[in-house]
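Subgroup meeting minutes
Present: P.N., E.W., G.H.
Scribe: E.W.

1. P.N. recapped why we're keeping a running log of single-chain structure predictions: easier to compare across weeks, and new members can see raw inputs and outputs side by side.
2. G.H. added today's entry (192 aa).
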Amino acid sequence: MRKAEVVRETKETAIRVGLNLDGTGSVRVDTGIGFFDHMLALLARHGGLDLEVEAKGDLVVDGHHTVEDTGICLGRALLQARGEGTGIARFSHVMLPMDEALALVAVDMSGRGFLAFDAPCPVERVGDFASELAEEFLRAVAVNGAFTLHVRLLAGTNGHHVLEAIFKGLGVALKGALRVVGTDLPSTKGVL
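Output recorded in log:
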């Protein structure tokens, strides 16, 4: 089973992430930020991931530390659960529509963390979530998960729909890239 558990405690946050790459989309998430919980649930459900997130953060300041540190933990969990990457597809992409919104999300489980983000949200906040935190979360996941992530917003005027397309798209792309398709390491270098 490709599973991982990551715990991170700082003066600002206490995060625990449990992850099963071969799950059914079972989700138990509590970050104290309702809209962020919704996005994590969508990511897991559409990624076929079993995901548990318990996060306590300094929300009296704002959501930044909680969102970024959750991304750090999720990225580390993805990397641990993936292991060496033997047999995985490695690459995947999706153009995911959500009503008027359309997001392109592409991943390469390359062993190199990188985010290219061109997806401006048309609103500053969606519920209790500052929309600029989506980029911070995605960067933390990609860098700590050691994978390349490209996110482009191709259309969208509703902030909720824009962010939903991105998070669902990430789930679908991760599911495709992490699926086991063989027994070889998908790299000419011999390592991801």
